[in-house]
């Protein structure tokens, strides 16, 4: 497989991640979770956004499915924290492939 084909495959694999990251509310949630190592529950996140609790829960589910947040149960509460390492690795690998593909084309 050529570098260009590898980059195309990496783009395809990363497309859901980019879709999740494109939403401004999800960006706000990620930025907010980045300010705390302890994480936040859905009520704490809802207080900071102009969204309903069900809407925040939906955004958190999408972020969890994309591997950007993790959820742990503390009593009756779900606590959400950032889990960016795999996503950052995926994006870096894509950028490396893209860079290698462009260098071969002298761009």
From TrEMBL:
<dbReference type="InterPro" id="IPR011991">
    <property type="entry name" value="ArsR-like_HTH"/>
</dbReference>
<protein>
    <recommendedName>
        <fullName>HTH arsR-type domain-containing protein</fullName>
    </recommendedName>
</protein>
<feature type="domain" description="HTH arsR-type">
    <location>
        <begin position="6"/>
        <end position="102"/>
    </location>
</feature>
<dbReference type="InterPro" id="IPR051011">
    <property type="entry name" value="Metal_resp_trans_reg"/>
</dbReference>
<dbReference type="InterPro" id="IPR001845">
    <property type="entry name" value="HTH_ArsR_DNA-bd_dom"/>
</dbReference>
<keyword id="KW-0805">Transcription regulation</keyword>
<dbReference type="InterPro" id="IPR036390">
    <property type="entry name" value="WH_DNA-bd_sf"/>
</dbReference>
<dbReference type="Pfam" id="PF12840">
    <property type="entry name" value="HTH_20"/>
</dbReference>
<dbReference type="GO" id="GO:0003677">
    <property type="term" value="F:DNA binding"/>
</dbReference>
<keyword id="KW-0804">Transcription</keyword>
<dbReference type="GO" id="GO:0003700">
    <property type="term" value="F:DNA-binding transcription factor activity"/>
</dbReference>
<dbReference type="InterPro" id="IPR036388">
    <property type="entry name" value="WH-like_DNA-bd_sf"/>
</dbReference>
<keyword id="KW-0238">DNA-binding</keyword>
């Amino acid at each position: 497989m050529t570098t260009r084909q590898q980059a195309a495959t990496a783009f395809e694999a990363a497309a859901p991640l980019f879709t999740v990251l494109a939403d401004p509310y999800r960006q706000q949630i990620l930025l907010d979770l980045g300010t705390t190592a302890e994480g936040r529950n859905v009520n704490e996140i809802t207080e900071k956004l102009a969204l309903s609790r069900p809407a925040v829960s939906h955004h958190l589910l999408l972020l969890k499915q994309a591997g950007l947040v993790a959820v742990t149960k503390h009593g009756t509460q779900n606590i959400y924290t950032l889990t960016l390492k795999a996503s950052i690795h995926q994006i870096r690998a894509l950028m490396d492939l893209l860079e290698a593909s462009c260098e071969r084309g002298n761009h």
